[in-house]
Design goal:
mainly alpha, about 75% helix, 4 helices
């Protein structure tokens, strides 16, 4: 069975795929920061959403 890392390594050999994948790094960093902040606050997604309104 192929692992995700092995699959990704193979896909990154394709120039178009690699450019698209690398172009999403900024978005994924923001998503990870949001996840980290939520985990640190110990509040649920629903509670955080209510505060944003």
């Amino acid at each position: 069975m192929t692992t995700f890392r092995e699959f990704l390594k193979e896909q990154l050999q394709d120039e178009h795929f690699r450019r698209e994948y690398e172009g999403t790094e900024f978005e994924w960093n923001i998503i990870q920061q949001l996840i980290d902040a939520q985990n640190a606050s110990e509040e649920t997604q629903e509670e955080l959403s209510a505060q944003a309104v």
